[in-house]
Write a structure and sequence with these properties.
Elements (H helix, E strand, L loop, with lengths): L7 E7 L5 H13 L3 E6 L4 E7 L5 H5 L4 E6 L18 E3 L2 E3 L3 E7 L6 H14 L3 E3 L17 H14 L3 E4 L6 H5 L4 E4 L7 H9 L4 E4 L6 H13 L5 E5 L17 H8 L4 E3 L1 H5 L2 H13 L4 E5 L17 H14 L6 E2 L25 E5 L5 H9 L5 E5 L2 H9 L5 E8 L3 E2 L1 H9 L3 E10 L3 E4 L10 E4 L1 H6 L1 H7 L4 E4 L3 H11 L4 E5 L1 H6 L3 E5 L8 E9 H8 L6 E7 L6 H11 L3 E10 L2 E12 L3 H14 L2 E8 L4
Bound molecules: phosphoenolpyruvate and manganese (II) ion.
């Protein structure tokens, strides 16, 4: 090869209407000239990433049919860079997804020490909420006299534990010669900090195309770390998860220094998910949980922590391993933190609707199996709740009204619907409850909670001093009064039927004197500008949603979780103490009541039905109690039993 041929990389942006043949031609044009070509489908555009020891004049590519434009990539890492791919990459490890708005928890011992140890730890971390199991079989130890791991035997135990408790597994690979053998045991390779720049190892692991957890080297810069990811990607995998695990500094109080700011820095530079390992970063048990929370607060897509059933007897890294009870508390804290940072805890697995044809609804709707309905326009808060509950690849069906949303599920046009039931500031959303009463064939299968963050959204270029009108749902306006009364005193407030709808409305009118108040996804979907974020008066603004489905689709969703909440609708006879007697049964059977609402019964003036949510410990027991409740009520319907989100 001639010396003047340097590495060339470019992004080829394709036209919207490009035909399959044209696309193939562009690809073969590039591969024939020595480029590795990756196709990246985004929501807005499809691009080809081309990397190679080759050279073509970009103008030659630009004139090919179907090509919109060609842009060179300026960063030294190419396939890993955000320049190439704007959307977050979601890495699939078995049935677990890492990236996007999820927080995935990987836990397990530093090393697999024996079968019973990994089995016991797997059971407890799974129960607490871990979704991926870790455990080293090849341990790169500082001293050759320390425990080196069980090798292949350890992998066998790890696999068995993962299978038994329904978790994909990850473990460190230290030698290129083990890669082939390890493939059949594990779901994700781990490249340790000491091997981050072991390029021969990176090449071999990259070739497998499998997911890889790439730890940051002890003294690696962020750029060197991303170049290591580039090695993996250039060799064939696009499933790389980065892991910040602390770096060497002059500080000796902790084993390493956790570089928390690496999380947002890396997220700017790459589309790959980045997680944190507070165990190796701190080396001290008591420091692990606070740093895990700091990582999640910084925006990490997950954490990896060491947990041991008997840390004091651990063969490696005992002092930094959490006791199972500490781990359980940590997961609960992370769960509470998630909605604050716009994330939700990854549960294994998020539902992936099976591809079946739904003919039972009368109308045959082939697409209905992975369609999720919500009320509002694209980018609405309800759509955000859908995205936090289901896989990215589900299709969404925006519906005009709450009733239309119920109808969509009832008729089989959508398999599930996500509807708000309660807001921490506005209270219960009765439309949803009343419609649940009116659709006996639909049932609650789950719930979701999101934090409501309001934004001042404008047509790009509008300045705050230009704004004369502010559009939003009356709730949106009400929740931002403090901001509106101080910073937009002279602007008129215009109530609109929907928050996301107010954004598309000002976009359509192109009004440069108008603003809308809505969630960030509504701005992104409409390509509008956010002038100010977080303008709500009270930050403790959360909305809880129900996930609904027809009875026959309930199990597919629920079977992944143990239900701990029951939602009931009942009416009692009009006599003194009737409601009291029902509540007495709940109390006698240890069913902690979380919510009680009364609703007028349509067509029966001054008669009421009651809506109750109770916490249940055991579904079996609860079913027995139901028999007693039926005796004391005129009508009783279980709207659903499901796993609570808080
Ligand atoms: C580990 O995760 O067990 C490990 C050895 O970590 P690191 O490579 O970050 O030191
Ligand atoms: Mn360790």
């Amino acid at each position: 090869m001639e010396n003047n041929i340097a590495y060339q990389t470019m992004i080829v942006i394709l036209k919207q209407g490009i035909t399959a043949q044209e696309k193939e031609k562009v690809k073969s044009f590039l591969t024939e000239r020595g480029f590795i070509v990756r196709e990246i489908k985004g929501e807005q555009e499809t691009v080809l990433g081309a990397v190679g020891m080759a050279h073509v004049d970009p103008r030659e590519v630009e004139i090919l049919p179907g090509v919109a434009s060609v842009v060179p990539i300026s960063k030294p890492y190419k396939l890993a860079s955000r320049e190439l791919k704007k959307e977050d990459t979601i890495v699939k490890v078995g049935n677990v997804s890492i990236g996007g708005n999820r927080v995935a928890i990987i836990a397990g011992p530093c090393a697999c020490e024996c079968r019973s140890q990994i089995m016991e730890i797997a059971a407890s971390v799974r129960e607490a909420g871990a979704v991926i199991l870790r455990g080293g079989a090849f341990k790169p130890r500082t001293s050759p006299y320390s425990f080196q791991g069980l090798g292949e035997e350890g992998l066998r135990y790890l696999r068995e534990a993962g299978d038994k408790y329904g978790m994909p597994v990850t473990t460190e690979v230290v030698s290129p010669r083990d890669v082939e053998m390890m493939k059949s045991y594990i779901d994700m390779f781990q490249i340790g900090a000491r091997n981050m720049q072991n390029f021969e190892l990176l090449k071999e692991v990259g070739k497998t195309g499998m997911p890889v957890l790439l730890k940051r080297g002890l003294s690696a810069t962020i750029e060197e770390w991303l170049m290591a990811a580039e090695y993996l990607m250039a060799n064939g995998t696009d499933q790389v998860v980065l892991c910040e695990r602390g770096i060497r500094t002059f500080e000796k109080a902790t084993r390493n220094t956790l570089d928390c700011s690496a999380i947002p820095v890396v997220q700017k530079l790459t589309h790959l998910p980045v997680i944190g390992d507070p165990s190796h970063a701190t080396g001290i048990r008591d420091m692990v949980s606070p740093m895990a929370l700091a990582l999640v607060a910084a925006g990490a897509s997950g954490i990896m922590v060491e947990v041991h059933n008997h840390p004091e007897k651990a063969l490696s890294d005992g002092p930094q391993s959490l006791y199972p009870s500490q781990f359980e508390k940590l997961v609960r804290d992370i769960q509470a933190l998630c909605p604050v940072v716009g994330k939700s805890l990854e549960s294994a697995p998020r539902i992936i609707p099976a591809s079946i044809t739904d003919e039972s609804a009368g109308e045959t709707v082939h697409e209905s199996n992975n369609v999720i309905a919500f009320q509002g326009e694209r980018g609405a808060f309800s759509e955000l709740a859908v995205r936090r509950t289901f896989d990215e690849d589900v299709k969404v069906l925006p519906c005009k009204s709450f009733r239309d949303t119920f109808e969509a599920v009832n008729k089989g046009k959508a398999r599930y619907a996500v509807l708000p039931v309660e807001n921490t500031l506005g209270g219960t959303i009765f439309d949803t409850l009343d419609l649940l009463g009116a659709y006996p064939g639909l049932t609650v299968v789950g719930e979701q909670q999101i934090r409501i963050i309001h934004n001042l959204i404008v047509n790009p270029g509008t300045k705050i001093e230009d704004i004369k009108k502010v559009y939003s749902h009356p709730q949106g306006l009400a929740q931002c009064q403090e901001f509106l009364n101080t910073e937009l005193k002279n602007a008129r407030q215009e109530p609109f039927f929907d928050t996301a709808g107010s954004v598309s409305y000002i976009k359509e009118t192109g009004d440069m004197t108008a603003a809308a108040i809505a969630g960030a996804p509504a701005a992104a979907y409409n390509k509008m500008e956010i002038l100010k974020s977080g303008i709500e008066t009270n930050p403790r603004n959360y909305t809880r949603f129900y996930v609904l489905s027809r009875e026959e689709n309930a199990e597919a969703f629920k079977s992944q979780f143990t239900s701990d909440i029951a939602s009931l609708l009942f009416s009692v006879s009009d006599e003194s103490g009737a409601l009291f007697r029902v509540l007495q049964i709940l109390s006698d059977h240890g069913l902690n009541m979380k919510k009680l609402e009364s609703r007028p019964i349509p067509g029966k003036p001054w008669e009421y039905s009651f809506f109750v949510e109770v916490e249940m410990k055991d579904e079996e027991e609860f079913r027995k109690t139901l028999k007693l409740l039926r005796e004391k009520t005129v009508s009783l319907r279980v709207l659903g039993t499901f796993k609570g989100a808080h």
